């Protein structure tokens, strides 16, 4: 079973439930900076009389130890505005759930109340109305790509942070996994196993998925391997059955064009494995399959799925920390924070037995 991470990054599920991380204190920051507690308090609260260089040093240390700076301007409530895509994902698997859990854990440490507000089809006027409340400090938009929503959010007078998406015009700060390097990591791993023709299975439409496609292309280009359109397989939704049908259609009655499939999501990988089994091919002996997300069910796939672990809980926590920084006036320039991903190697990948199936 997949181990949940707590707000401090612990992989122990018992710790995640029973042993909440100790909240950083002013004394911790003061000790690191070599100053008094009162100086730290004045530096973080924005009071006058603190050297600007020292103030920056104190703020950097506070962020490093994840000190929850009290939010005194704008209130103690934050809106989590969820898109339809985020809600659909929430009902199907745990990706959105883990982002939300990371955000909630961090909010509990900071004494902030999270107000969950689905984004209606009519637009985000309801979000703008909620921000009129003096007790609401800002808003986090989850999984939003719609340019009209981004345009409107960029005009809000209170801080906005995007999570699991970004603003291509860099008007809004954002937190997301480094999707491009994540896909590059997976593709490089397959190349290291001897695979030379690697297909990419995806559900297009989101910028984050296009970034994963670019990561696959980066790897193929770096290793001098093919990445033509014939090696990409697209589906209209993230359902395993659609991936199963797409892979079946791609391979049935034709020579095998690839020895590995890199999937842009774990659910697509499940469908790909089903298709290969139905076609009489073994995973990983005949075709290796690798997913992306590392959701809990990945360990229960037959065979257990090699996948890219995305730090989804950390995304939620980091988004709230970034919003907190914006509220306190500590970051005036929008930033895009991309979190590193790692490879979870299991049994769905193996060394290639055929280097080039088209030869």
CATH architectural label of the largest domain: 3-Layer(aba) Sandwich
The helix/strand class is alpha/beta
SS field, number of helical segments: 13
* Alpha carbon gap, first and last residue: 41 Å
Number of domains: 3
- Beta-strand segment tally: 12
Q: H/E series, N to C? A: HHHHEHHEHEHEEHEHEHEHEEHEE
- Write the CATH fold name of the largest domain: Rossmann fold
Rg, Cα atoms, Å: 23 Å
Tell me the strand percentage band: 15-25%
Q: How would you state the average pLDDT, rounded?
A: 86
CATH-assigned homologous superfamily of the largest domain: Response regulator
Strand order of the largest sheet: 2-1-3-4-5-11
Tell me which oligomeric state these chains represent. Answer: single chain
Uncertain residue ranges: 1-20, 71-75
Largest sheet geometry: 6 strands, parallel
